[in-house]
Design a protein that fits this description.
This protein is an alpha+beta fold. About 25% of the residues lie in helices and about 25% in strands.
Length: about 160
């Protein structure tokens, strides 16, 4: 008696989950080109969540390289854990560097009472100047942020 053969079902890159909102995109999600090949990972989501305005993504195409900026118009589909672009691999390679937006406010320590609070407040102020200085215009990601993104990609 012959044993019926069962056809193997292969899940392709196009058979992904349901689309999700840009608000759930997280650093480390896979970024795919239009043909389904992986071109990088999400480094940062750029937008205003309060006004529900999605500007684009900063994506890492290599471990040590500067992130590239992908405008929201080039994002074709967002599913859980994956962002598919409407760009080819060659077009992704031609994307410009992601420039961090200018900062508009400097956060001041809320308390400077006592010696412990004073030292803690000074440490927070120095940390802010080193890792997130106030900028008046768009600028390249500083070395400390790039190192932090490298380790986040490495361990995620």
């Amino acid at each position: 008696m012959a044993v019926p053969q069962v056809a193997a079902i292969r899940q392709t890159e196009t058979a992904m989950g349901n689309p999700v909102s840009w608000l759930v995109i997280e650093a480390g999600w896979k970024v795919l080109a239009a043909d389904g090949r992986e071109v990088g990972q999400v480094d940062e989501v750029v937008g205003d969540s309060n006004a529900d305005i999605f500007d684009g993504l900063a994506i890492a195409t290599s471990r040590f390289g500067k992130p590239h900026y992908v405008p929201s118009e080039q994002v074709d589909e967002i599913t859980e854990g994956t962002v598919r672009l409407s760009l080819t691999q060659a077009q992704v390679d031609q994307l410009g560097e992601y420039l961090e937006p200018a900062t508009s406010a400097q956060i001041e320590p809320n308390s400077k009472r006592g010696i412990g609070e004073s030292v803690s407040a000074e440490a927070r102020e120095l940390e802010g100047k080193a890792f997130a200085p106030t900028q008046r215009q768009e600028h390249s990601m500083n070395i400390w942020r790039r190192i932090a993104f490298f380790f986040r990609r490495l361990f995620s």
